[in-house]
Amino acid sequence: MSASADSVEASTVHIRTIKSEVVPREEVPRSLEHISMDYLAERKKPLRARYAYGTIFLIMNLCAWFVRDYGQLVLPQLRYLKSCGTGGRGCFHTLGVLRLSLGCFIYFFIMFLTTFRTRKLYEAGNAWHSGWWGLKLFLFITSMVLPIFFPTGVIQIYGELARVGAGIFLVLQLISVIQFINWWNKYWMPDEEKKQSCSLGLFMSTLFYIASICGIMFMYYSYAFISSCMLNIFFITWTVILLLVMMAISLHSKVNRGLLSSGIMASYVVYLCWSAIRSEPANEKCNKQNLDNGNDDWTTILGFLIAICAIVMATFSTGIDSQSFQFRKDQVQEENDIPYNYGFFHLVFSFGAMYFAMLFISWNLNNSARAWSIDIGWASTWVKIVNEWFAASVYLWTLISPVVRQSKVMDHEDPVVETNDSALA
């Protein structure tokens, strides 16, 4: 009995030794952990890279402003270039802005063409988007210098195309804003599980409506203070009507979207109206602030710098918001997927280059803008007003469209039910 017990114990020890040699218990988890850490490190690179592209875009904006206002004084050598025309006028002011805008567009469009197929972190497009900064610096400088040698006719054709690209950028930005408003509304408004968020959602909606009312009162006081300012009175009054319509439809029993989303949209619409009236020419009698302020006081300079930062932030936020433009919302994000769509990111910056060009020249190819001014002129005013009306229309359609689709489905289902009933009878 003892001999057999010893043999059984020895065989058990031998089997355990074999098992421990064949299947190391810690080897598989360690390899998976290393893979996960590698992907985590790879995901951080494009997240840092997007700030570098935003900085490049900011530099291009500042260069465009510098060339428009001071380029003729600081860069007199350009007047000797044949492409710049007599006295170098084709490389300064409006045409100078368009040349730099074209350089920015070329750079980001090349980046779009080389990254729009990238989907995984291990692909070559991810390494190109997140690295190779020496080569991309050379590409950036080449893109800025190359348009200087283009004929003036080519630059003017680009200016016409830039109007279309800037309009596309405004549409993309609007879709991104509306998607953010819908997300904000779902996050803060109450549901069956989050009953505590009701008071906070109502508080936030009240703040947005108070801000909208204060904005309306401020615009009436500052820009519609006499009866002869009929255009400003029309702009502001029509904005009030849009706010009332959005609030009424949001509270309708069939829509039932609450006040938070309409309150946020109301503030955005009021801002667009104020920005449009603010863009009216300075010599107009219905614009107190533009009449009182000069071209070089601190408020003008501060407003100019804030406007440039707003352009960069709007382009950056729209570029990283590729999820708002996906047709399928149920796609599962895998570990080795890129954190955002690189191609869409660079395409938005390409359209953003056209947009900042239009702001610097006030949407007018023959414009001669004042120093330290941005987006001033009747063309800019009407572009912003149309953008406001379009934004309100798109938002109202997002409220009404689910009800319309539901009613169409019910209309198609009713005859089917009737025929079934008649068949049963």
TrEMBL record:
Entry membrane topology: Multi-pass membrane protein
Protein name, UniProt field: Serine incorporator
Protein family: Belongs to the TDE1 family.
Residue ranges crossing the lipid bilayer per the database entry: 51-68, 97-116, 137-158, 164-185, 197-221, 233-251, 258-277, 297-320, 340-361, 381-400
One Pfam family per UniProt: Serinc
Keyword set, alphabetical order: Membrane, Transmembrane, Transmembrane helix
Superkingdom assignment: Eukaryota
Species this protein is from: Rhamnella rubrinervis
Signal peptide as annotated in the record: none
GO CC, alphabetical: membrane
Family matches, as PANTHER family: SERINC-DOMAIN CONTAINING SERINE AND SPHINGOLIPID BIOSYNTHESIS PROTEIN (PTHR10383:SF23), SERINE INCORPORATOR (PTHR10383)
Tagged with keyword Transmembrane helix: yes
Subcellular localization, as worded in the UniProt entry: Membrane
